[in-house]
Amino acid sequence: MAQHTSEEIFQQKVDNEIKIEAREWMPDEYRKTLIRQISQHAHSEVVGMLPEGNWITRAPNLRRKLILIAKVQDEAGHGLYLYSAAETLGITRDEMYEQLHTGKAKYSSIFNYPTLTWADIGAIGWLVDGAAIMNQVMLCRTSYGPYARAMVRICKEESFHQRQGYESLLALSKGSDEQRAMLQDAVNRWWWPSIMMFGPSDAESTNSEKSMLWKIKRQSNDDLRQRFVDATVDQARILGVTLPDPDLKWNEERGHYDFGVINWDEFWNVVKGNGPCNKQRMNARVKAWNEGAWVREAAMVFADKRRQKVA
Ligand code: 3HC
Q1: Considering only CA atoms, which residue is closest to atom 50 of ligand 1?
Q2: What sign for the dihedral angle of Cα 289, 294, 295, 301?
Q3: Which residue's CA lies nearest to atom 21 of ligand 1?
Q4: Are 233 and 257 in contact (CB under 8 A)?
Q5: Distance from Cα 161 to the centre of ligand 1, integer Å
């Protein structure tokens, strides 16, 4: 009988849709790719709290405030599930935080844009969470078990976030002229950055080939981007807003919407740390980390005391 190498057994499992679990053999590159993607994802959830948290004190009424607080808490929870999933691969949480705080780790480009008006909060829910969920549904079936399982709950919550964002924009669309103008302005600013969130074009995506082979990713950046555009155009029509792209039109032959050229210089500039709010976001995270030192210390002392009592 032919002997199979560890790599072949691993790939067979992936091909047969058997989840890879934490203690099983896996190629080093698979482990590294997962740590990179899951930790970037966790950082995005955590940094993503900042632009929204910024509006908790200014939400227009109690109902909106309660919803926003709950949403921001959900994002914190997503960060924790994802950090836990990454830890199963042999990296510590402190190492991941260190990578974030020193600028070594990436997080989603989208959270480096400012939230200037209340309509931005709705636009984040509709467009940013909408784009996030388009990408993340496939991750519920990703090949690594702990990541796939974390994603099930995250997706349920993200889909609620998308709907609440859309509902709050729908309210603005039925409001005064000023409210409608504020809505249009938010859509004008968030549309292109949301399209960019899916990452570089397939031709430029350095990780996709391996990630697709290993079923970490199941759909390409461009395919997901196209699905998002196709799904969003009708929703924009119902809101009565214009998407800021003169080249956006239905292509009968392709059965998809065509859209304009993405400003990749802007995307890479933001990814490299030069977006409108990169520095502000990182300063806020580092400040929260430093000021939270006493909480971590107290928690460690408490845990030690409990351990001694049990022993
Ligand atoms: N922002 C910042 N960096 C990005 C990016 C983005 N929007 N899109 C791609 N990149 C980076 C990649 O990380 C990679 O850099 P690296 O090799 O140094 O890590 C480089 O650009 C090339 O891109 P690839 O297409 O080769 O990278 P991936 O194969 O990893 O695909 C991805 C990128 C589709 C974002 C994939 O990593 C992914 O699906 N990640 C999980 C989901 C995720 O992290 N979403 C972020 C948003 S989460 C969120 O929005 C929270 C919610 O509450 C709204």
Answers
A1: 132
A2: positive
A3: 199
A4: yes
A5: 20
Using alpha carbons, list the distances in angstroms from residue 251 to 207, 248, 256, 257, 272: 30, 9, 6, 6, 34
| β-pair type (256-258, 249-251) | antiparallel
Closest residue by CA, ligand 1 atom 24? 205
pTM, to two decimals: 0.95
Nearest-atom number in ligand 1 for the CA of 45 is: 51
Alpha-carbon gap, residue 10 to 16, rounded angstroms: 10
What is the position in ligand 1's atom list of the atom closest to the CA of 217? Answer: 39
Q: Which residues line ligand 1 (CB under 6 A)?
A: 36-37, 40-41, 44-45, 48, 75, 106, 108-109, 128-129, 132, 135-136, 197, 199-200, 205-208, 211, 217, 221, 271
Q: Considering only CA atoms, which of 8, 1, 4, 3 is closest in space to residue 27?
A: 8
pLDDT in tens, 259-279: 999 999 999 999 999 999 999
Query: Per-residue pLDDT tens for 33-89?
Result: 999 999 999 999 999 999 999 999 999 999 999 999 999 999 999 999 999 999 999
209, 218, 78: which is closest to 141 by C-alpha?
218
- Separation of CA 85 from chain center: 15
Query: Which bin fits 65, alpha (ψ -120 to 50), beta or left (φ > 0)?
Result: alpha
